[in-house]
Amino acid sequence: DIVMTQSPDSLAVSLGERASINCKSSQSIFHNTYDKDYLGWYQQKPGQPPRVLIYWASTRESGVPDRFSGSGSGTDFTLTISSLQAEDVAVYYCQQYYSFPYTFGQGTRLEIK
Amino acid sequence: QVQLVDSGGGVVQPGESLRLSCAASGFTFSHYGMHWVRQAPGKGLEWLAFIRFDGSDKQYADSVKGRFTISRDNSKNTLYLQMNSLRTADTAVYYCAKTTPGHFDTWGQGSLVTVSS
Lengths: 113, 117
Known about the structure:
The structure holds two protein chains of two kinds.
Chain A: E1 4-7, E2 10-13, E3 19-25, E4 30-31, E5 36-37, E6 39-44, E7 51-55, E8 59-60, E9 68-73, E10 76-81, E11 90-96, E12 103-104, E13 108-112
Parallel strand pairs in A: 2-13
Antiparallel strand pairs in A: 1-3, 3-10, 4-5, 6-7, 6-11, 7-8, 9-10, 11-12, 11-13
Chain B: E1 3-7, E2 10-12, E3 18-25, E4 34-39, E5 45-51, E6 58-60, E7 68-73, E8 78-83, E9 92-99, E10 104-107, E11 111-115
Parallel strand pairs in B: 2-11
Antiparallel strand pairs in B: 1-3, 3-8, 4-5, 4-9, 5-6, 7-8, 9-10, 9-11
């Protein structure tokens, strides 16, 4: 199974500042045939289901603010929020969909400093 | 709009069975693969099962293989998760999710399953 490890487990950032969350996979999730990294980022607020923010490692989902961006390839990925807003307080998960069983990172809790 | 509505959760005793349903609307259900994901109280997300758009392929997490069965009825636009031999460790909110394929672009609101004696 592919293990997804996020860092840090929790993060406190001031409003308007940049927040970065890292995700590392235990093996490459880059698919040579399709030239894509099979990685998604999800945001989950309390009492709500997760919501996809980023897929194929760097493609922003429709309706997601452009302050959210994804980067990286192979085994190392980053979700960046360029200017933290109050509504961004949530838990963030990375997920690989390269091979079954699909696996999620353990989650990163983002709070306001 | 695209919507998934989870139902069927409840309180059961260890060893009992339960069937969850996920009603889809707003898209052509029969064209998309579907997944089940769960979240134990205060914990992270755990992928459980996948079914291909036509039901011809199914995949399971080891934690539920042999106990849970994913199925779908494309005529009713509904996804199911039959859960047998339930354990206290299966207590969680269960979500259905639509795949594009690849990432999960739509999620149900979740259905709480509590396994307790």
